Amino acid sequence: MNIITQEAKKKQAIVKYALRKGKSEASRVYGVSLSSVKRWCKQYDGTWQSLLPKSRRPHSHPNRHTKREERQIRNSFKKCYERYGWDGVYSDLKRKGYTRSYSGMIYAAKRMGLVKYKKTKKKSRNHRRYPELLIPGEKVQIDVKEVPYNCLRGKALRDGKHFYQWTAIDECTRMRFVYGFEEHTPENSTKFLKMLLKEFPFKIKRFKQITEESSHINIKAVK
């Protein structure tokens, strides 16, 4: 129950009490003005819906588009919208002596039902971009990155060597295996895969190889 409905039902209780005990007594007991109680009693028809607040929006406005201007907008819309859009519609209206602003034209077109909004479909919370993997080893992701120079320590830092880190992650269990080599070569990729097959406790079915250098390696050839 929203707050508007609650207020209407509260007014209904006040009106019922006023009909039994009197309007002045209802005003005193519920702490509302006597004029409000009288107005609600006059408005009440036996249902709480009759006590809902009425819209205070004016029915007309002195600056509203005239029937002639609305007819001009509709004709220009049929003539130009499909090819030129609303800019073309407004240009055509200006040539015919239309004096309103662009935003005023759009507001009038909305009221006339010419502007239609497309409803956007809400994405389901269960929607997944990639299917969830439930079997260990179904897909193992492999990546190779160069170790940053400022991360090197000791002898490697003094000799100015480069190190490359091979990383393998199982997309189901998130189990990870990491090893480093001094050179980034296909031979080292093959060595890494052989070590990986020994370290992982489950059978690997498929590799998802990110780097182009290791993309030619076949798991059957490694075995």
UniProtKB/TrEMBL annotation:
Domain of life: Bacteria
Compositional bias per record (Basic residues), positions renumbered to this chain: 54-66
Region span, Disordered: 52-72
Residue ranges of every copy of the Insertion element IS150 protein InsJ-like helix-turn-helix domain listed in the record: 11-59
Matches recorded under SUPFAM superfamilies: Homeodomain-like
Protein name in the entry: Helix-turn-helix domain-containing protein
Species of provenance: Ruminococcus bovis
